[in-house]
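Thread title: Can someone regenerate the structure for this chain?

I was given the following input by a collaborator and told the matching structure tokens would be attached. They weren't. Posting the sequence so someone can regenerate them.
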Amino acid sequence: MITLVAAIAQNNCIGKNGEIPWHIPEDFKRMQEITKGKVLIMGRKTWESIPEKRRPLPERKNIVITRDVNYPLPPNVEHYATIEKALEAHPGEDIVGFGGQKIYEEMMPMADVLDITHVNQTIENGAAFFPAIDPAVWKESWREDHEGFSFVRYAR
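Best answer:
Regenerated them for you:
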């Protein structure tokens, strides 16, 4: 199964100035629960946005997509030039698309589930965005509302 995990603003912004533009501890906790034991596929910029002391993310297979074969990564982190190559290397495993924008755009057509934190903010001058969630394709299957944000799961 392929799941995309993201926190998105009302205007679908996911990043500004190389960072997530909010701090929601409950979102980080939920992300850890959803991704534990799974294969995380992320772009280089997403990898770099994780504080160095926290990477690689523990109890997960961390994969970085980069065309730079000499990009320095710890030995326990895999890298591939394409998402397709990463998927070929992990047949039958639970995959999580972890960002950023290009990863989400490429993986959206192959995803089975979207686990989204909808943040009740609009971010001006955002730099990275989550693709539009087409209601003709994606149906809300679960929701948990909180003050300022909601956890929502979508399925095809």
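The helical segments are 25-35, 44-49, 83-88, 101-107.
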